[in-house]
Amino acid sequence: MNLKNIQKNLLPIWVYVPVDIKRLFRSKVSIFFVFLFPLMFLFVFGSIFRNDSNVSFRVALVNQSESDFARQFSNSLRNNQILKVDNQTNSIDQAKEKMNRGQIDATIILPSGFGDVSGDTAYPTGEAVILYEQSSESASVALKSVMEGILKEVNSDFVETDVPFVVKSESTATEGLRQFDYTFTGIMGFTLLSLGVYGPTSVFPRMKQRGVLRRYQLTTLKVWQYFVGNVLSNAFIGILSVATMFVSAVVFFELNMRGNYLNLAVVVILGTMLLYGIGLAIGGWARTENQAAPLAQMITLPMMFLSGVFFPVFLMPEFLQNITKFIPLTPIIEALRLIVTENASLLDLGSQLGIIGGWIVIVYVLAFRVFRWE
Questions:
Q1: Percent of the chain having pLDDT more than 90?
Q2: Can you tell me whether residue 86 is helix, strand or coil?
Q3: Residues 238-289: pLDDT tens digits?
Q4: Of the residues 110, 128, 158, the one at which a domain ends
Q5: Does some domain include residue 39?
Q6: Bridge partners for 110 per DSSP
Q7: What pTM, to 2 d.p., does this model score?
Q8: 70 lies in the same domain as 42
């Protein structure tokens, strides 16, 4: 095939791509699901995990002592960064009710006589009580360690003690993976899933019913040209959507992007191609939206919950992990996550890219076989 024939075959594609992009931006529904809906997810999960690296406990503080030391100690606990004291709780009954509802983790009680100076000592003494429910036992153990550390500092002001054994902690000098960083890449995968599957499964049946695809069939536009044009326009939209999410994540939630943006763009384009191929196969086969929508849900819901969109795949049973790594969305999210959090190169992503490439071949062969213009 000479250069003139190549240009002739590519011309319909270059004409179609900007038309399809304009079509998407003219649709308010498409703009919502491609740009605004993923941003809503981003801000919801970002707000939840913004301070996930700071350990804190929600506690009630009940001071039953009238000593000056108890009042000063209560004030110091309220100003502690680890303890989030509920200032609206003043009695043990109120505290128990809130613990039962899960509104607080535990209750710190300073009993009567806490902080009084006894006759045998020249300094205040007392025993603080941590009240907790059986379901919060692990949190109470951690809280007890925090309180022991606080009281250890207080005790050192009154009594000098020799400590033969100590513990020292050292930093690895590396910034670990935050829960938000992990979740963010899952939201990116969800965005590409929405763009690739839900878009064509709703648009193509509607275009068939309106006779739009039938008119395309009467032109010189071939099926493969139509496919390539759609893939290119959606890859562009995918890059734009992910870029919008990245800017929002960096500005509002201080996302730490460790990888190369070019590598990320390559994975986004390949991921869009794969997921759009699934949507193209469903939308190209279905005659109506009533046929396409249930089939799309049957395919996307398992991918959403088994591919690490909202929680790590490694938490699943081992036999399930061996299955989920071959689900189309899983290697996409893994590749995105490795680039963003570990600065992985494309060579490091050989297995993920191999699975993505294999699925691209499968879904487009299937899409070509089942596609119909009307």
A1: 11
A2: strand
A3: 888 888 988 888 888 888 888 899 999 999 999 988 998 898 888 888 877 7
A4: 158
A5: yes
A6: 63
A7: 0.68
A8: no
